Structure formats: C-alpha cells, structure tokens
Known about the structure:
Layout lengths: L12 E5 L10 H10 L4 E4 L2 H5 L6 E4 L2 H5 L7 H15 L3 E5 L10 H13 L2 E4 L2 H10 L5 E3 L15 H8 L6 E4 L7 H13 L5 E9 L11 H22 L1 E5 L9 H7 L2 E3 L10 H7 L3 E5 L2 H9 L4 E2 L4 H16 L2 H12 L2 H16 L6
Parallel strand pairs: 1-2, 1-3, 3-4, 4-5, 5-6, 7-8, 7-10, 8-9, 10-11, 11-12
Helix pairs in contact: 1-15, 4-5, 7-10, 8-13, 11-14
Amino acid sequence: MNDSEDTSGSSITALIVFRENGDAGNLFVPVLCDAIRMTGVDVRCSTKEFWESDKTYDIIHFQWPEEVVGRMCDDPGIVRRLEERIAFFRSRGTHFVYTRHNVRPHYANEVIGRAYDIIESQSDVVVHMGRFSLEEFVGKHPDSRNAVILHHIYQYTYQEDISVERARQYLQLPQEAFIVTAFGEFRNCEEIRMVLGAFRSWNEKQKLLLAPRLYPFSRHNHYGGNFLKRWASKTGYYLLMSLLNRVMKLRAGANDELIDNCDLPYYMAASNVIFIQRKGQLNSVNIPLAFLFHKVVIGPDSGNIGELLRNTGNPVFRSDKKQDIIRALKEARHLSARGKGEANYAYAIGNMGINKVGKQYAELYEELADRHQFN
C-alpha cells in the first residue's frame, strides 16, 4: 500500500480497522485496501485510528472483530469502549460495514464473543462471501442489511509464473508424484485423522500429501515451563516427523511454523490438488489462492466453502465419511488431468478479481455515504 497515493478526487473517506503493519500470514486486508483505493476511495488501514482519532470518516469497515479489540483480549472494559467509539463515529455521520469472515473465531473467549455481537448488530451492512453465510445470518438477524461480495483473489501479490517442475525442484519434491496439498494449521486431531485416514486409504500409487503445518509438535513452544510437554513436543519434532513422513508418504511439518509468503507460490505451483481440511469453517483463503494458481480444489460440503466449490464444479465431500473423501480425491485426480484448474482460474479472474471486488466495495461505500436504501 502507498499512503502517498493521490485520492484527492474522491469524495468518500474510509477506514478499514486492521493493523497498520499488516499480518505476514494474512494479506486479505492489504490487497483489498489497494483494490478499493484504485477506485478512487480515500481508504486507509489502522486500528489505532479507530481507537484514538477524532477524524471523521464516511465509512468504517470492520473485518475480524478480534482484530479490533485484540486477538487475546480478556478485558471486559473493551466492550464498553467499543460501543462508545461506534456511537462517537456514528454521531459524526459515519456508516459501518462488516465483512463476515467467521461465525466466531476458533479460540474465542467471552470478550471476543461480545465484540462479535456488537459489530454484527451495529454495522449498517454485513458483507458475506457467499449465500450460505447471508442466509444463516439473516435467520439470526432478520432486520439486518446484507450484501454478497466474493473473496478476492491475490492478483499481483505472488509470483504466478512458476512451473510445476521448477516448484518441485525448489521444494525437493518428486517430479512424478501426484501431490495433494493441505495448507494452513491443522487445529485438532479430528482434522489430522480425517485427512490422513482418507489419504492413506486412497489407492493412488504415486500420491504424496504435502501438509506444511500438520504435526502438533514444536521446537519453540515452552509449554509454560512444563518439562514433559516440552520434551515430548521436541522429540516429536526432531525424531517422529521424519519417520512418519517416510512411512505415510507425506511431506509434513509442524503446525506452528508459518509458510513464508515468498515460498507460498512454490507450494501452490507444485501441487496438483488443494485439499481444504477445515471442518465447520465458513470461508477459506485457500480456494481463491488455488484458483489463482490454476488448481483443482476439494473441500467439505459446508459453509461458503461447499457453496463455492459446488458452484464451480469442484469436488465436495462429507467430512465424517472417509469413502466420500476418497471419492472426491479420485474425482479431483480426473478433473486435474482434464484441465479443470484452467477453468477455475478463468472463473476467479471473472468473478473474484481485485478490480471487480474493489469496485463492488466502493459502490457499497458510495450507497451508504449517499444514504441510499438497498436490500
């Protein structure tokens, strides 16, 4: 982002409530901010500005409520302050937009839950990344105003021209393998069992599972000084991971080690199929990423994830049925050979491109700023 960019021709000012220095593991907001700025909206990202500034904005745009109050915040006083800040800006004529990423975060406490309640109820418009989310939300909030804008892809963010051969050479992966990649942290044993159980039972000779954040081991976590936990975790990290990888045809790593953004396109390019392992998740960043890199995706038939995969002809499965996951893997193998990844890319460029998504948000901002009524 370039804060010196000239937006003087815009009549709309907007604040996206997100950390000024971004998040190395989450580029959603920086890319979105740039996309909206390209339409002429004077938009900036800041949490400090929300809490400390008296500047008037036409639009304040919330993303994750835990980003507003702090991811691990347990101070009940923040709830009152949040309500006061919203009331202050509203008294200045500000309108509020909330993009709904989660129903609730995985590790939400009571304070974070209250922040979600306040932002959901106080926002003038809630933006959803699929009809599933919208319909679920309207069922709980029948008087809410809602819109659907798809998750944008990450154009011009990563190196997109890496060949499969080059990526596999860089990551030291076998050139002949059929590689299924499960990105993101595996959050519990259920997700590990689901993926490993189906993958090991899938009768595919040259298969390889690439799961950079699968194992619940760590070389960094001190577990609050608990010697036994620390010892078990380090033993798993240094001894068990390599053994399990050889036995089970995996290339997997520790779940607390992030993939560097410079390496991420190599993982994508090296893959044949992307496996969405999250159970009960509303959205997944890995679908737009996979589409951008011309990949087939399989995932659970739930939330906006299942909706988008069904709408684009990618395989979905029931998370609790191993044979259904195996069926989806077989179907993905077939689709990959027939060029389905190219169709996914074309869909993403036409429906999830940053120009289109940026324009949709800018138009929404303008409607609110002009006090237009819409459904």
